[in-house]
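Margin note: ligand = S-adenosyl-L-homocysteine.
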Amino acid sequence: MGEKDNFFLLGADEFKSRLASAGFEKYRAAQVFDAVYKNKIFAPLEIPAIPQKLREWLLENFQFCAAEMVGKKQSGDETKKYLFELNDGNFVECVLLKAPTDDGGIRKTLCMSTQVGCACACKFCASALRGFVRNLTSAEIISQALPFIEETTAGGKKSRKFEFENIVVMGMGEPLINYQNLMPALSVFNSAEKFAFGARRITVSTCGIADKLEKLSEDGFPYRLAISLHGATDEVRGQIMPINSRFPLTRLLAAAEKFSKNCGRMITLEYILIENVNDSFEQARELAKIARRLHAHINLIPYNKVPALPWRRSDAGRRAAFAKILDGAGVSYTLRREKGSEIDAACGQLALKKSLGPQ
Ligand code: SAH
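Resulting structure:
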């Protein structure tokens, strides 16, 4: 299985020539691409209207799924978490979040992992607890999305589509450390000839790997960027995020400024409120200054409890008072409510484990 090329990573032209050299008509390429990318059929033997020989050739020569889904967990109708087993026996989790939008709709977002474990060691985060194991391959990153399919029947016609319309790379791992595998995976979702998710529907979140961030604008990185700030001064940020000693705020913010200027896209600053750690009014004022400088949007997030860790979330009153300071400073922010914490599917709760725990 490891020997086969991953289907999703092949371009349309490349696939066409592979088909031709195997003796199939070139027009079959479009049929297969339509079945996979439009109709979300990821099992070659189920692709309709192509010869059985072609189905078998696809099955023999290409890998479609590089991670087996081995567990499911759901909390109400809001959050769904799938557990995947990788070929080497490691596990990763991927989460689907449904949240109401301001205009009365529902936003369905898939939260993907990029590494097994994480090396960044943020002190409040469950993913950091067992350290770093390895990068996910591009194929493994893509595979996490594949089971999140819904089947609908309209006018007697069945169709299959992804259950999500946005992707956030905010699961386990630090995406910019696995940049080389992440980018080809995201292109599969973004590319017009493949899943065709607009770049604005894809957000990559980083804890602040400033040297990689400096490269993003040079590389023409098309996606949205979120930075996990969680502290508005080096003193406070350095206490909870070891990455801050390698890339202190001066360097990180300069890189962020360059990104938003060169790419013309607004950055989101993620800020989890942890009681008596980063929720002082002084931090709120400093945070507002940073947001103004970067023209960034702030996402204030309640801290999700990690059982093995001592941190607690700031209470609702404190969160509101903190937000009021941002409001007064005229910066744009969202006071986020939590999602998925009952099934350990919320931010920072994805851990390196091989079962989803009791239902
Ligand atoms: N490594 C990347 C992406 C993974 S973490 C990053 O740091 O951005 C996704 C988000 O969840 C980050 O903002 C992270 O700081 C946050 N997070 C980690 N632990 C959390 C917790 N227990 N409660 C709430 N958010 C948490």
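The two ends are 32 Å apart (CA to CA).
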